[in-house]
Amino acid sequence: MQPDLKEIVEQYGVMVSSIAHRMIQNKEIAKEAAQEVWYEIIKSIDSFNGESGLSTWIYTLCKRTILRYARNERIATMNELREFRELPAIDYNGQDRDEQEWIKACCDWCLTAQNHCLTNDARLIFIFKINLNLPYKQISEIMGITEESVRQISSRSIRKITHFMNDTCPLYNPQGTCKYRICKQVTSLNLEKEYTAIKKIIRLVDVYQRLEKELIMSKIDFLKEQIIESRNFVNRLVSEIPENQWYTIPEGTDSNFAWQIGHLIISQNFHAITCITGRNEAVSKLIPMVDYVKVFNGMGTLHRSTEKNLIPVAELKKQLDAVHEICISNLSRLDDRILSEDLEPIPFKHPVANNKYEALAWCFKHEMWHSAEMEAIKRALGHPIKWM
Predict the structure, then answer these.
(1) DSSP-based three-state secondary structure for 209
(2) Which of 188, 215, 242 delimits the end of a domain?
């Protein structure tokens, strides 16, 4: 039984236009590419034999046609997006319809511009995964490459765009340099579903779903939430690694899970406790911090050794949780006034922070960076990635 063309148009019409729009910056050329896709669908529909799923067949036609139109698209650099940051700030009360559409267009322009910092194939894979939420297996069939290649390309693209978001977008980093400051404005807009997919780029913040809550948060509560979110991600990884593999250093890596956890224990204590309120007695009683710093700070002996059970895994887990609880309890008693203060006295210059806000911000970013290493270790140990 041949698929009904009317149903295809209703189900895939918006998606085809969206793919063309994301792939091609010139609106007229994007529109022409989308029309060409529909011409190919109509011309080929009688030859559809059901060997692949209907959506795979349609998106494969999209790939062939739109990539042909997009081959002259120039790959941008993140630096070229600086013009977006230099536009004047806006004052918007959330009522004027024209201003709503203008801000929505700005969001759209930004997301499309970010996509154009990727190659055409990477951009299309990114759109299939992030905007359309297709499974990796289906994307590999559409693109004609292995599932593993799709995962690698998708991961690199997400890292690249996440870096830009951290530097620029105040939806992700309150210190972002974008002068649109669309945090306030977006709450009044009903952005189309594809825009909300950007939350998958940013593991730390469900940008649009939680935006209204974050706007009324104090800055220190916002930072505390990010520290909690990053630790939730680490805890998921902890639950997925058998304890008998914590001290294994997989081939092709230079670390193991035990070292990573020990490093996060001393790092959270340093960045989010010691630098903020000074040496904490509860932590000192719980952990021999001087000894831990020697082992877990940077390239300690454990980092490259095969030494087993230096510290029992159960003890590391308990200490990881305890330091985190002390950190969150400590932050809950503070307010925004402390964020601009200098760091508490430490014996050396902080590697990135000049004040307490920057130390707390670095704490959760640093933890997410190490979670990526832990994910790689887990995968090298034979445990597949479980995508959220």
Answers:
(1) coil
(2) 215
In the chain, the number of structural domains is: 2
Instruction: Report the distance separating Cα 28 and Cα 39, nearest Å.
Output: 17
Q: Give 144's DSSP letter.
A: T
3-state secondary structure 268-320: HHHHHHHHHHCCCHHHHHHCCHHHHHHHHCCCCHHHHCCCCCCCCHHHHHHHH
Q: Is the model's pLDDT at 68 over the cut of 80?
A: yes
CATH code assigned at 365: 1.20.120.450
pLDDT, tens digit (0-9, with 9 covering 90-100), for 116-165: 677 888 889 988 887 788 899 999 999 999 999 999 988 888 777 777 66
Domain boundary among 181, 215, 249: 215
Do residues 259 and 340 share a domain? yes
Q: Do 287 and 182 belong to one domain? A: no
Q: What is the mean pLDDT of residues 101-122?
A: 66
Enclosing domain of residue 320: 219-380
Distance CA 270, CA 350 (A): 10
How would you classify residue 188: left for phi > 0, otherwise alpha for psi between -120 and 50, otherwise beta?
Answer: alpha
Name the pTM for this structure.
0.47
Report which DSSP code applies to 222. H
Which of 29-43, 174-188, 217-231 has the lowest average pLDDT? 174-188
The predicted structure's pLDDT at residue 1: 58
DSSP letters, 165-199, are HHHH-TTT-TT---TT-HHHHHTT----HHHHGGG
Query: Residues 151, 9: one domain?
Result: yes
Could you tell me if residue 223 is inside a domain?
Answer: yes
